[in-house]
Amino acid sequence: MKKNGFGYLFLLNTVILFSTYEVVSKIIIDRISPFQINFLRFFLGGLFLFLFSLIKRDYKVEKKHLKMLAVLGVINVVLSMNLLQLSLSMENAKAALVAVIFSSNPIFVTLFSSVIEKEKIHTYKKAGLILGLTGVMVMSINELSIDAVNILSPVLALFSAVLYGLYTVFGRKVSKDIGSLKMNSYSFLIGSILLLPFLLLFKIPAFHINPSITGHIIYLSVLTTGVGYLTYFIGLSIVGASKGSMVFFLKPVLASIFAVIILKESVGIYFLLGTFLVVLGVTVIFYWEDFMGWIKTAKDR
């Protein structure tokens, strides 16, 4: 745990920033297209990170990496994030249900890690995974009225979660080769540029926005996307993809807390029970090895 301490701090920063995305987006959603938000946050976030690469004079990327960076941009920016936005835009879509399904992406990260990176899935990780998934399901139990849900919405959210899981595993591999800063800046910029034809096709403005939401867009682009993704992959490179991705189980908890504080939304008993299960699951994953080591040391004494 001690050697991974900085990794957990980076991941904690990420989950806090990611948890504000829905709240900030909800504030401005009636003044901007969700697809324009998606384009701007990755384009501006990519420029922000690329600026740091220029300052560090470490911006060169070999041709062999460009192809993979383009693939990452397509998987994350063009496909995963747009599918997530589409799932939320469906008629009768339930935001809590969509959030729950997307927050299940650690399951797919774990599966892809075991197949692609041959990362071993310990029993305690499986237990923590189940506890975390159960927790996010319990938190949204009031939203799971199937007769009121457009079935296409959760299906799109599921595909988004699968793709994000794949992006996380491949992104971590590329990040190890060229660094998290360059990996994120190039994949964001390439992905957002490839998204432009989609905006033009549906006559969605790329850069023209209501001046009243300029600050919100800068926050979503620079902090939530730029800094958030950067610290996410730095953390993953330290603690591992399957373990580090578990921060997403905390996202519904923190997002709900921010919604209560900022949007004055209410929570009930299911939220409290779900929060307990999520925290328990994450605790098992992060601290089980330390706990067992403490027991072994105590026995040896």
Automatic annotation (TrEMBL):
Keywords, A to Z, come to: Cell membrane, Membrane, Transmembrane, Transmembrane helix
SUPFAM superfamilies in the record, alphabetically?
Multidrug resistance efflux transporter EmrE (SSF103481)
Q: Which InterPro entries match?
A: AA-Vitamin_Transporters (IPR050638), EamA_dom (IPR000620), EmrE-like (IPR037185)
Kindly indicate whether the keyword Nucleus belongs to this entry.
no
Tell me where in or outside the cell this protein is found.
Cell membrane
Transmembrane intervals: 7-29, 35-54, 66-84, 96-116, 128-145, 151-171, 183-204, 216-239, 246-263, 269-288
**Domain EamA, residue spans:** 6-140, 155-286
Please provide, in alphabetical order, the Gene Ontology terms of the cellular component aspect for this entry: plasma membrane
Keyword DNA-binding present in the record's keywords: the answer is no
Q: How does it sit in the membrane?
A: Multi-pass membrane protein
Family (UniProt)? Belongs to the EamA transporter family.
* Protein name in UniProt: EamA family transporter
Could you tell me which species this protein originates from? Acetivibrio saccincola
What's the gene?
A: yicL
